[in-house]
Amino acid sequence: MLLEIHPESPSPRKIQKVVSTLESGGVIIYPTDTVYALGCDINNQKAIQKICRIRDLDPKKANLTFICKNISQLASYAHQLDKDVFKVLKRNTPGPFTFILNANKQVPKIFQNRKKTIGVRIPDHNIPIAIIEALDRPILSISLKNDDEILEYFTDASEIYDDFANLVSLVIDGGAGLNQPSTVIDCTNSELTIIREGIGQLS
Predict the structure, then answer these.
(1) First vs last Cα of the chain: how many Å apart?
(2) What span, in angstroms and rounded, lies between the C-alpha atoms of 55 and 90?
(3) Which end of the chain has less Cβ packing within 10 Å, N or C?
């Protein structure tokens, strides 16, 4: 299904349709403040494995991210945020950043990799935030990459639907996506390290 949702004022009825899809184990493709992404309920192992199959990834080695609605929700999956990290999060969220943090035991087992870390993100986009608020927990996210030699990521929802309609339950059309991902910052050591330069400029 291709579902058009207004990016500025998402319809509660349409958001509930997305939530029902996630709760029943569905995989969605949705817009963020950077690129379009694959998403599912973090508590549904089969849906997580399906996303990994679509992207040809090993769940225990893949760089999977939790999309959260705020710092409080994000912190519930991280092991002790120190003051400096908290300040960075406060200054730069919501926004186009993915933060690598030490994970705690609240993180589902399928995500508990050898490094014991988790990627977390609070996008500056009304659609994913509305989904997470209605679902009342984060969603798993991984960028939707394109095989095109020029465009690394998909930017048009109708093209996404043409390619992925048989692989996912729902594609959300929230307008044009970008072709540049989030900036990834490793916060697990004493000094923050940018491990992928993306659209975000850290302040």
Answers:
(1) 39
(2) 31
(3) C
